[in-house]
Amino acid sequence: MRLPFLRRFATPPTGRLLPSGTTGAEPSPDTVTPGAPEPPLLRVRDLVTCFRTERGTVQAVDGISFDLAAGETLALVGESGSGKSVTALSLLRLIPSPPGRIESGQIHLEGEDLLALDEAGIRRVRGNKAAMIFQEPMSSLNPAMTAGMQVAEPLNLHRGMAWDDALARATELFREVRIPDAERRVNDFPHQFSGGMRQRVMIAMALACRPRLIIADEPTTALDVTVQAQVLDILKSLTEETRSALILITHDLGVVARYADRVAVMYAGRIVEIAPARQLYRAPRHPYTRGLMASVPRLDAHADERLVPIEGQPPDLANLPPGCAFAPRCRLAMPRCRTERPALEAVSADHFKACFADAHA
Fold first, then answer.
1. Which contiguous run of DSSP H or E holds residue 47?
2. Given strand 270-276, what is the order of strands in its sheet?
């Protein structure tokens, strides 16, 4: 299935590791593609994050595994409640406890086990080796501090720069993210910026210490289309320049196609399909992925052609059905789907799906 509104696909970096959590004849999780120059920058294995609630335990992230190479952009897509944001928060150990808890798994950033660090150790990672750009900058920025001070703060904290030097660097970062009149705007407070400019401040803050990993959780949701494109272009170009890895969380399949190298589709806390962006858009193999594609308007469709929604509602994570969580909504479901949970299996060398049926039609 191809979507005609896609303008371009990003070119995947070489030397990417194959995802783990797979079975069958696919390569082992530790197998490197031929000629791979370096190990993955981020390695996640069997990550499980739960929340204790009055209705029981909610397993928001259910054993996900993936690798991410330096300079690569991985998009996490799926409906609200699929576990995308909880995955991002888990990577930086930002899950509020109680009620949340990372139950098990491994998170290795440049070989360092983040789950084994104490609180002081993980604070040295946040904003330094790894940074996060949140969905709503107005609620993430401190209204009582100037924007320049907030961008300079990680430089003072993690790099030991004097405040004068840190503020000078913050001004340079403002220029890099294309904030006009940077020398003056560093002294402005968050409420004096527009929504798009506040998001650029957040990007400048995230890039201040040149982190190796950047997580962007729906960074352009509240922005208009033009500003959205500007912000994402800035983010993509700067991560490519610094060879940072980027995890992009979004609902917008057009954004995914334009900026992602690889796409992981999440449903009910699990990755149900993962593949290079070009391959996923040309031949999605999971019924849920195909449903997401079919719900997007197409420029080559007839004016009277209706969109095809995914029937039903996402499952209650506190009361998941046995077998495949998508089976109650799936048109290809078979009896086996309602009793067994499919593992992530190889479709091709770097394309994996968790489904018993063959949705390649």
1. strand 42-53
2. 22-23, 344-348, 351-353, 270-276, 262-267, 73-77, 245-249, 213-217, 130-133
Contact 140, 193 (CB under 8 A): no
Q: Rounded to whole angstroms, how far apart are CA atoms 196 and 300?
A: 31
Determine how many CB atoms are found less than 10 A away from the CB of residue 37.
Answer: 10
How many residues make up the chain in this entry?
Answer: 361
HSE-CB for 322 with a 13 A CA cutoff: 5
At the second CATH level, the architecture of 22-129+209-353 is 3-Layer(aba) Sandwich (3.40)
DSSP letter assigned to residue 186: T
Name the residue ranges covered by the structural domains of the chain. 22-129+209-353
No. of helices (H) and no. of strands (E), the chain: 11, 13
The residue with tokens 């949970």 is 341
Band of residue 293 on the pLDDT scale cut at 50, 70, 90: confident
Could you report the per-residue pLDDT of 158-194, keeping only the tens digit for each? 999 999 999 999 999 999 888 999 999 999 999 999 8
pTM: 0.83
The two tokens of residue 228 are 């959205």
Q: Which of 139, 156, 159 is nearest to 148 (CA)?
A: 156
DSSP string over 243-281? T-EEEEE-S-HHHHHHH-SEEEEEETTEEEEEEEHHHHH
Most distant CA pair in the chain: distance in Å?
A: 67
Structure token pair of residue 1: 């299935």
One DSSP character per residue, 294-318 reads HTS--TTS-TTPPP-PPPS----TT
For residue 237, pLDDT over 80 is answered with yes
Question: Cβ neighbours of residue 180 under 8 Å, at least 6 residues apart?
Answer: none
* CB 141 within 8 Å of CB 150: yes
